[in-house]
Design goal:
364 residues; mainly beta; 10% helix; Gal_Oxase/kelch_b-propeller; Protein UNUSUAL FLORAL ORGANS; KIB1-4_b-propeller
Length: 364
């Protein structure tokens, strides 16, 4: 994390007025101006008020503050403080990036194991769009043979690389804790993973890449995992059929308004899974014949489709466009378009949510 500099200039200063008693002239007031609050004031504040102040700190400042004393260090493991943090802390979305790894088929494995068993601990790279700062995050506790698949509520979902019933691990990168789910019921190769976490429940959907034989896969079914604070749970006991002739590219899903969304290819469309009703449907994508590298993102409770558009035969300039799915769930409205002269030779490489950050890779 970035170091804290005590010599930094504050935009304000505190004024304290101590009083002293004189023998004949009564009380004389002296005004002292200092950039720091008197420590005597801090010592008199109730602990509940201090906790509330700390809950408003951004994550880097909070972790620096944990080095002050044992009590502040233990706040990260306090259920009451974490509940307070969820209530009052401003929502600030950060972005987590991983190095792209080449997918390897694990249908055939040698008895001696693969090179993934000796790989270095995985690292992630966090981008703070508010301070425009980057941080390095280690996932040393995640076992080898797992790759990041999705994230929600500050938790990162990892899925096993080996073909067969998929093992899923939820990792809390702040606490460094791991929680492993039971393996899926159906063997799969590289399925799409959807995860949503809220204070009362966790839902996971694993879809596509069903292994119908050791040599072939098809996108046939999806499995759901659900557990909530009320004690109700369904461990891969709920399955559903995917729409016919769907072509999911292995990747993550986006959760918006009780539904998981993922891209469908050849031709482009969007698959939607209603979690409560356990029903899949297909939504036609806008300008589907001319999209390039489409990606789905969630922004402020809305589903956005980000894609490059190219109509070479119709003499339409190349552009990067954003569409928003309307409340009816079937139509799209274009909400933004990047000027065509700003992306002369580029394609979409990554799209994420929060403040809607887009990254492109230039083609030379």
């Amino acid at each position: 994390m970035e170091a804290f500099h005590p010599s930094m200039n504050l935009p304000f200063s505190y004024t304290f007025t101590p009083t002293t008693s004189g023998s004949s002239s009564g009380t004389i007031a002296n005004t002292i101006t200092t950039p720091w609050m008197d420590r005597r004031i801090w010592s008199k504040l109730p602990q509940r008020l201090l906790d509330r102040v700390l809950a408003f700190l951004p994550p880097p400042a909070f972790f620096r503050a944990r080095s002050v004393c044992k009590r502040w260090y233990a706040l990260l493991f306090s259920d009451s403080f974490l509940e307070l943090y969820l209530q009052v802390s401003p929502r600030q979305h950060w972005f987590l990036f991983f190095k792209l790894r080449t997918l390897k088929s694990h249908i055939y494995r040698s008895s001696g194991g693969g090179d993934c068993d000796n790989r270095e601990p995985c690292e992630g790279y966090i981008f703070d769009p508010y301070d425009l700062a980057w941080y390095r995050l280690s996932f040393a506790l995640v076992p080898s043979g797992f790759s990041p698949a999705s994230s929600s509520g500050g938790l990162v979902c990892w899925v096993s690389d080996e073909a067969g019933p998929k093992s899923i691990i939820l990792c809390n990168p702040i606490l460094g804790s791991l929680t492993q789910f039971p393996p899926t019921l159906r063997p799969r190769l590289f399925p799409s993973i959807g995860l949503t976490v809220n204070p009362s429940s966790i839902d996971v959907t694993v879809a596509g890449d069903d292994m119908i034989s050791p040599y072939a896969v098809k996108n046939l079914t999806a499995e759901n995992f659900h557990i909530d604070g009320g004690g109700f749970y369904s461990i891969w006991g709920t399955t559903s059929s995917l729409p016919r002739l769907c072509s999911l590219e292995s990747g993550r899903m986006v959760y918006v308004g009780g539904k998981f969304y993922c891209m469908n290819y050849n031709p482009f469309s969007v698959l939607a899974h209603d979690v409560a009703a356990n029903i899949w449907c297909k939504i036609q994508a806008p300008m589907r014949r001319f999209l390039r590298s489409p990606s789905l993102v969630e922004s402020r409770g809305n589903l956005l489709l980000v894609a490059a558009v190219e109509k070479s035969k119709l003499n339409v300039p190349k552009s990067l466009r954003l569409w928003a799915l309307q409340a009816c769930g079937a139509t799209w409205v274009e909400v933004e378009r990047m000027p065509s002269n700003s992306i002369p030779n580029s394609r979409i490489w990554k799209a994420e949510t929060g403040s809607t950050v887009l990254a492109t890779e230039t083609l030379l």
